[in-house]
Amino acid sequence: MAIKKVPRLPYRRGSQSSEDDFFDIPDEPCLAIAKRQLRHIRTWVVFALLVLFLVWLRRERPQPQALPHINYDLVDWSRYAYSQYATSSAYLCNAVMVFEALQRLGSRAQRVLFFPEDWDVSVESERDRDSQLLAMARDKYNVMLIPITLETIKPGAGSGESWDKSISKLLAFGESEYDRIVHLDSDANVLQNMDELFFLPPTKVAMPRAYWGLPDTKQLSSLLIVIEPSYKEYNALMEAALPAMYGQKAVNTSSTQRYDMELLNERYADSATVLPHRQYGLVSGEFRAEDHRNFLGNNYEVWDPDKVLAEAKLVHFSDWPLPKPWVLWPQNLLAEMLPKCKHNPGTPQESGCRDREVWKSIYHDFRRRRKDICKLLSYPAPAWPPTEHSESSGSKEPV
Predict the structure, then answer these.
(1) What is the DSSP code (8-state) at residue 220?
(2) pTM given for the model
(3) CB-based burial of residue 13 (10 Å sphere; 0-12 exposed, 13-18 middle, 19+ buried)?
(4) CA dihedral 301, 303, 306, 308 (to 10 degrees)
(5) H/E stretch holding 225
(6) Spatial CA neighbour of 362 closest among 282, 289, 296, 251
(7) pLDDT at 79
(8) pLDDT higher than threshold 90 for residue 46
């Protein structure tokens, strides 16, 4: 019996067929063709999705947002407050500017202002600016006004400025109706909301480091103090201040720090919570410095003035011998004190002047807000170099 040959291609006729019908392949059902093509497409789609998934897994993921450990909407904000004190017209305006910034930035805490008891809120004339500012603080910025008897160290024991001899800052320690108080120096630009300070772990005092004195000294700076009010602490601090108040203790009149800062360091230097100075202790003079290792805390980080200012919650004005920002700059002194450009300084080709631009913007912002909020212009520039009389009546400005 003969064996029938089966063609290798089942749908193609044998080679013995005529040439005309050799390529005459029978029609395959369209559905079968579609299914076969779909299988190929599906395979490629699955492969492409797998590749995309692997690329997605290897992507650079953004930093996770901080968890809202505290629901601010449920906080009893009457238990927390910012405090300031004013002993002169200039510092009263500064205090109002700080309260304006806190309100603009969305702070929910209470606000307290200590002021001399011989001031009042009765506006007797258009020129009665102190009374107008007190009324503005009370009515527009919801500030609690507390008249006080000024507590100072003995006259002649410090510089001629009242803010240098006053220890009224210590009064915040006695405001025990609050669970926590954040006391701010008013000669500063508040840049960001700082309400998170009210929820630090329990501590009698939290302060930033006076980083400009590192590594020789590791003092705390009193430009910002987080306080747990306590009559016990208040009485202890006032008792420690009594010798200086009655002239029984010599005060270093050439010191560049305030007496209240010295007092707080004596009591809390080894027990206070240290706040990061990048956020809570930046001083304007840092933008004039050439060596930023004390501020950065290392030798490898690159100084970036824009980044530094963006991270800061506030910047405190300290540029001795330049005056505070409500006093105009003596132009001949300013030429010496301006931050230097990085390349070709002092020439028409100078560049790399970002430190100077940022530094000047801090001052311009303060003066603009002083004019807009307090309706006050800066004082005329003092004579420079100072006369013999002015040298004897003042001292180096503390930080």
Answers:
(1) B
(2) 0.76
(3) middle
(4) 70
(5) strand 224-227
(6) 282
(7) 97
(8) no
Would you say 275 and 281 are in contact if contact means Cβ atoms under 8 Å apart?
A: yes
Question: What's the half-sphere exposure (Cβ side, CA atoms, 13 Å) at 275?
Answer: 30
The DSSP secondary structure of 74-95, one letter per residue, reads GS-GGGEEEEEE-SSHHHHHHH
What is residue 134's predicted lDDT score, i.e. its pLDDT?
A: 96
Q: Where do the domains of the chain lie, and which CATH numbers do they carry?
A: 75-372 (3.90.550.10)
**Ramachandran angles phi, psi of 357, nearest 5°:** -65, -45
Report the SS3 class of residue 26.
coil
Pairing state between β 224-227 and 205-208: antiparallel
The arithmetic mean of pLDDT across residues 85-113, rounded, is: 96
Measured at the alpha carbon of residue 95, what is the angle toward residues 206 and 379, in degrees to the nearest 5? Answer: 125
Kindly state the DSSP code that residue 343 receives in the 8-state scheme.
B
Quick: pLDDT tens for 372-387. Answer: 999 998 888 888 776 6
Q: Which of 50-64, 180-194, 240-254 shows the lowest mean pLDDT across its residues?
A: 240-254
Q: Nearest to residue 224, comparing CAs of 185, 276, 172, 187?
A: 185
State yes or no: pLDDT of 268 exceeds 70.
Answer: yes
Sequence-separated (6 or more) residues with CB below 8 Å from residue 60 = none
Would you give the DSSP letter of residue 230?
-
**Tens digit of each residue's pLDDT (9 = 90 or more) over 52-83:** 877 777 766 565 555 557 888 899 999 999 99
What one-letter code names the amino acid at 399? V
H or E segment to which residue 282 belongs:
strand 282-283
Within its chain, how far is the Cα of 35 from the centroid? 65
